[in-house]
Amino acid sequence: MSDPAISTPEPTSPDQPDPHRWWGLAIIALAQLMVVLDATIVNIALPSAQHDLHLTNGNRQWVITAYTLAFGGLLLLGGRVADLVGRKRTFIIGLIGFAAASALGGGAVDGTMLFAARALQGAFAALLAPSALSLLTTTFSLGRERAKAFGIYGAIAGAGAAIGLLLGGVLTEFLDWRWCLYVNVPIAAITVFGAFALLSDRQGQKESHLDIPGAVLGCGGLVAIVYGVSEAESKGWSSTLVITLLIVGAVLLAVFGWWQRHTPHPMLPPHIVSNRNRGGSMIAMGTATLAMFGLFLFLTYYLQNILGYSPLRAGVAYLPMSAMIIITSTQISARLLHYVPPRLLIAPGMLIGAGGLFALTFIGTHSNYVEHILPGTLMLGLGMGLVFMPVMATATSGVAPQDSGVTSATVNTAQQVGGSIGTSLLNTIATTTTASYLASHVRPGVSKLQQEQLSKTAVVHGFNIATAWAAGFMVVGALVAFLLVTAGSPSRREAAEADAAGAADGAAAAGEEPG
Q: Does this model's pTM top 0.85?
């Protein structure tokens, strides 16, 4: 028998909406914020954690990678578990586990304990994130309310990473790096209480079965690829380990795709990703996060190591971009999506984001924040605010309730894998370019001061080239979104459905008229 505290009655129909839906949205958004900001909150705190726990330069990256590896690799499995067990039940389990893993990490006494805690955080985030998005999908299914709800959710998803950088700076500077992990415990406690009281959900699909071979193939392929890309950052793309992992990951995913077309109970039903609107939206999400997360790495390092910003000041520097994402998602995208085809928001948004990235390719070793950095980050925030909300709304639209969890997981996977690949790929481009610049500009007999200046110039040059690549990826994403995402505006679809229903009713009435 199901637990009445967790398994609640099915959500009301669109004609009788859930009276607690907006409070429920606040709970869902808070959980999503916790998951997204944890991908970046420890970035600024990493030097302090490295010093306290005596981490080496070679293994310190696992504080970040352990989280993204478990998160990205297990998302599809987490989405299907949400469909089978029930979204609300999975949501609450994910929250409790995430809080426990955060407490474990905050109390870490050595690197191994911290790495294990971060991996556990990622595993529970893989349960939490898809169940949160699918709860939103089933709570807000039609009309302007759906657009508004996804506008708020998209703002959180887009701005959460930058908010994490700010919060990490505040906590590290005024408390301790451990609070970057401890802070999740009270947030999760509030969210669990709210979930019990405010969220409703249909029960899990008891007649379905978990696709164990699909879970092993899909999760194994994603883990191998994310792990391979993360290792490329330190070992290089030509490393035997990296090449082997990428090949194994690609083979496992190819076999996974074949298996999903032949098994009677697929973990990822093929129709979910074969739909051009969902497929195009997911490619756009992956491309956007690839570019944006790569920039976060460069800009954080640039602000602290080149311009000499403190952790707090570096975090504050991201505030305008975060505010722009939130304002654009909630006040522009959410208002326009009901009337405008999604691609007319996604494609222009990615082009505006590409323009912001291109503007940041002109920064130098003595650039001014207001004149040289702020305009580009504001443009990027404007563009991402136009992208994230319609991408998520389009990718989860029209999905059967029993598939909403795995569909939401696929969207999150695109975001997480895109961010992981972007960080490693663009960092490799930056470091290679920096090394080439130094090799071609080093001259014998220069002073130590000149060497330091040359080193800074080379690093910034590497950032500029990598950011230009990020802008190029964003342009490609805009083109893909414009060509693949062909869905009309929700208002036009609703009008067409109403006309079709009216015509059917008229035909039925005519057929009943006496001859």
A: no
